[in-house]
Amino acid sequence: MRRDKWLLFISAIIPGVGYMYLGLIRKGIEALILFLIIGPIFRLIGISWLTNIVRFPFWLYTFFTTYEIATQQDLGVYVPDTDFINIKKPNKNVNMSDKNIAILKNVLAAVLIIAGLIVILNKAFAGNEVYNLIISYIKTYLFPVLLIFGGLYILFRNSGK
Asked: What phi and psi values does residue 46 have, to the nearest 5 degrees?
């Protein structure tokens, strides 16, 4: 089923709304709620400076997967309306190996552990000047450095083949 490209683009700009436009209501609502509560939760636990660093990749993921799902649906592939965070093998039509699923689980676990450690450090050393200096450098340089490394990874990941 072909959809209006402009409506797909406009709906994909808002995380989760693109999924809902494609008929994946559960996935869309979950993605939208997750995107909207990132900021308040991070402010609540004292790491509000990480909000945009987490939201931007989340937005990129939802934007591009909206187009992937639309392409699959246009090709006639059935895309089930599963949970947004679904680490199980989705269906037989999606090429996601068990190795990739294990990597995804490990990355998610590492992100959660690192986030927990950051919260603990933030609560323990909040008044320390050295800690505040480190946090200011992280706020200033982490996101650009992640973008650079992400670009380098994409550029060189297939160069060895």
From this structure: 90, 20
pLDDT tens digits, 89-113: 555 555 555 666 677 777 778 877 8
Of 79, 54, 51, 53, residue with least CA distance to 66 = 79
Residue with tokens 């946090």: 135
Question: Which residues fall within 8 angstroms of residue 82, CB to CB, at 6 or more apart?
Answer: 26, 27, 90
What are the tens digits of pLDDT across the range 45-90?
777 888 888 889 889 989 999 999 998 888 888 888 887 776 555 5
Nearest to 31 by CA among 60, 5, 51: 60
Which of 41, 44, 43, 21 minimizes the C-alpha distance to 33? 41
